[in-house]
Amino acid sequence: MEEARGRSEGAHRRDGARRACRRKFTTAGLPSVAQSANLPPFPMATTKARTKRIGILTAGGDSPGLNAAIRAVGKAAVGEYGWELIGFRDGFLGMIEDRWVNLDKRGLAGMLTLGGTVLGTSRDKPHRMPQEDGTTRDLTGEIVKTYRRHKLDALVCLGGGGTHKNAARLIEKGLNIVTLPKTIDNDIAFTEDTIGFDTALGIATETLDRLHSTAHSHHRIIIAEIMGHRAGWLALGAGIAGGADVILIPEIPYDVEKVAAAIRRRSEHGSNFSIVAVAEGALPASDAQELELLLRRRDRARNDTEKKEAKQALAAWDKARAGHTMRLAKLLEDLTNLEARVTILGYVQRGGTPSCHDRLLATRLGTAAVELIRQGKFGHMVAARDDKCVPVPIAKVAKGIKIVPTDHWWVESARRVGTCLGD
Ligand code: F6P
Fold first, then answer.
1. Which one of 23, 117, 185 would you pick to mutate in the ligand 1 pocket, going by the greatest count of ligand atoms within 8 A of its CB?
2. What are 395-417's pLDDT values in tens digits?
């Protein structure tokens, strides 16, 4: 990859470190369950189009399969159509600071199986960039300038909920944007699948498999905390595939007494150990009500001040809940007379080689993004639906979140094999 920078590497690193100290991760999931977009699939190309110049970036948390997607966009855009492709470093920050690499055929080689993202990523919000004095500034204008300076025909953004919100703002400024859904949480609205989910699901499932033998040997409860933010897809999927005895997800508030009763029943039947798969966002019923109120306050905020205050209250609430899995373990020990241990899977779930499924998905969605650009159909995310690639307006995606419907067949299946869901 041929690197280009407007400023020295050291200066960027120092800025990055300062920003990281000030930055707070406030996630903005919307409470509604996503609905289908009902958009027709688009046809693949039969003819080649004129040369174009495309930018690409990865934003938000990394996930396995991002490089496979960058490669797919590149192979189709550069290899098939002879367009030019440049990759911006570290998400939207790279566009603000005009740091980029040339993704020619050589630059695209050897990345299909690599984890993470060769471009780097960040959770920066261009409309609210932290400044030295503690204030924030809207720097979307810098992105527009970079886009024009490079004479881009389109920008491909790979990301999750936050990225789609950022992309929607840039579309309003006149940029031609196409997005790809990426997150291990699988919580992006209007798409059935997201790049990285399958790999993370595999890692979490394998971990539960491994925890079984040690839980069994020591007659313990082992609680595995699984990522997913405010959605339970990862914990539920891995919990079912890994044979967890209890699965707790944010969509089904739990009663710890019922969880303890299920574990005691297992003991009475001779199984003196239990595996509990708990989503990081899982909540007891009382906390779920508090969260509901906080989310409602944020969504109904009438102005910037109200919104800021509501987001701060939500962040403080999230912070206060840190360690909730440890507290759950203590409660279960007290209620069952069994020893309990906690394993927090954490970032292991996001690391390493993408699964075959994620490589296939990334290749399918990445090449489809190039077809959208070729057709001049901008402002859309390429969704995976019914075995097809379907364009969905980014403005719609940005407003939703896909959580687990409580009547989803995964939920039904878990119940039918006797798994306690805490309700
Ligand atoms: O969105 C992916 C995810 O891994 C979530 O599951 C998790 O809550 C979050 O990112 C962690 O964010 P960060 O990488 O900023 O710590």
1. 185
2. 999 999 999 999 999 999 999 99
For the Cβ of 228 lying below 6 angstroms from any atom of ligand 1, the answer is yes
The domain 53-196+354-397 having CATH identifier 3.40.50.450: the answer here is yes
Fold that domain 200-350 belongs to in CATH: Rossmann fold (3.40.50)
- The phi-psi region of residue 181 (left if phi > 0; otherwise alpha if psi is between -120 and 50; otherwise beta) is beta
Q: Which residue ranges make up each domain of the chain?
A: 53-196+354-397, 200-350
Compute the distance from residue 185 Cα to the ligand 1 centre, in Å. 8
Paired tokens of 66:
């991002």
The minimum-distance atom of ligand 1 relative to the CA of 187 is: 1
Contact 85, 77 (CB under 8 A): yes
Q: Is 230 in the pocket of ligand 1 (CB under 6 A)?
A: no
**What's the rounded Cα separation, in Å, for the pair 246 and 196?**
25
Q: Token pair for residue 290?
A: 């508090």
195-246 pLDDT per residue, tens: 999 999 999 999 999 999 999 999 999 999 999 999 999 999 999 999 999 9
**Whole-structure pTM value:** 0.88
Ligand 1: which residue has its CA nearest to atom 7? 229
